[in-house]
Amino acid sequence: xxxxxxxxxxxxxxxxxxxxxxxxxxxxxxxxxxxxxxxxxxxxxxxxxxxxxxxxxxxxxxxxxxxxxxxxxxxxxxxxxxxxxxxxxxxxxxxxxxxxxxxxxxxxxxxxxxxxxxxxxxxxxxxxxxxxxxxxxxxxxxxxxxxxxxxxxxxxxxxxxxxxxxxxxxxxxxxxxxxxxxxxxxxxxxxxxxxxxxxxxxxxxxxxxxxxxxx
Amino acid sequence: xxxxxxxxxxxxxxxxxxxxxxxxxxxxxxxxxxxxxxxxxxxxxxxxxxxxxxxxxxxxxxxxxxxxxxxxxxxxxxxxxxxxxxxxxxxxxxxxxxxxxxxxxxxxxxxxxxxxxxxxxxxxxxxxxxxxxxxxxxxxxxxxxxxxxxxxxxxxxxxxxxxxxxxxxxxxxxxxxxxxxxxxxxxxxxxxxxxxxxxxxxxxxxxxxxxxxxxxxxxxxxxxxxxxxxxxxxxxxxxxxxxxxxxxxxxxxxxxxxxxxxxxxxxxxxxxxxxxxxxxxxx
Lengths: 215, 283
What we know:
- The complex is a heterodimer.
- Chain A is α/β, with parallel strands linked by helices.
- Chain A is built from 6 helices and 9 strands.
- Helix content of chain A is 30%, strand content 27%.
- In chain A, the strands form 2 sheets. Chain A has a 6-stranded mixed sheet with strand order 5-6-7-3-8-9, sandwiched between helices.
- Chain B is globular.
- By secondary structure, chain B is mainly α.
- Chain B has a single domain, classed as ABC transporter involved in vitamin B12 uptake, BtuC, CATH 1.10.3470.10.
- The longest helix of chain B is centred in the last third of the chain and has 42 residues.
- At the A-B interface, strand 5 and helix 2 of A face helix 2, helix 8, helix 9, helix 10 and helix 11 of B.
């Protein structure tokens, strides 16, 4: 049976503000879903619930996927990216038990992915010394190195120029077509959304309409 | 009083037990404290170390007031406070920073009241440290705790690195963030509590922040930052020890001033080098 994500009557509130109200949805293996809609309509929150970072206040979520990669919104205000080199960040993507070290295979993999995403020459640079597009590619490499079957991306293209955004979405499309990776992406951009196979539109009154593209 | 023999041959110190003990203490602390400092600052919580060193101080004050062993009381009090900090950070993320300040104030206030009950003026030695009067129990405790902490740092290096980079991503990867983070906090508070009994809270604050500032400026990676910070504190610790011994100065103070002096020199050197590089690039 194919893997699925099924959310039933999910609600979520931050302290006293209700962000998601009674949402039911289903995402199937191989879907390329865009979460779109205005700010503050609960897109990121639902993504975090799917990633098991937040627990829904009520309702249930079932997630069959085992190898999940989650890319949070890039928030440079937090400044905790200071002390990391590009190589170190990519190496964090290798998921192993807490008490373990990187072996030769892991290192080869890190190198291959850095070359793949065109950041190999930057590997010794500090994360805060590279451009926004390079930062995003670095974090994508971190996400993709574990070859996830479910990829959750929270606005991977925010603050980037048109070409870089195009590049990132072309990469995601390739991943979806070739490896059949299930991808959920939060996005505002119409062009980007058109590349997805489905989209879920979040609205202010906390309703979510699910649409299919005709392709 | 300046001792002429000390100035002419500071290595004379090695013929004394107390000097060797102080030397070993400095090396051990220079190995572990900058590590903790770097991680706390990449987590965005550099205040934690300062807070914990003051809670250890409060623990010591409790120990002295009730006539028990300060070491034990400071460890217990520090670990409890560190878990409290961790709890606040999880439960009320918006209030995390302020909760640190509250615990710090509480600890200082408690210390202030309890120092009245401490016999003699022993308390001052815990504030500024007294490296030349380390007793054997404290010395052995420090060796054990530092070795334990180094083993922990090595084994948990990758997960701690991931945690300080992005906690949400760790949660999505199925890591037990709360458990790992609590273990980390406990180890940190253990090291700081034991160190506080020996070198005082002043030197802890120094070792955790000054080399870290240097590393933040110069390092290109997290590993590099840890190496630079450790090296910087070993060098300034040893030089500070020798200067302090030769001129009969307070050792803790001498080490702190030495490391601050080196920090300023390094900043200036870095500044000049950057300028030169800029000029060369322009021409």
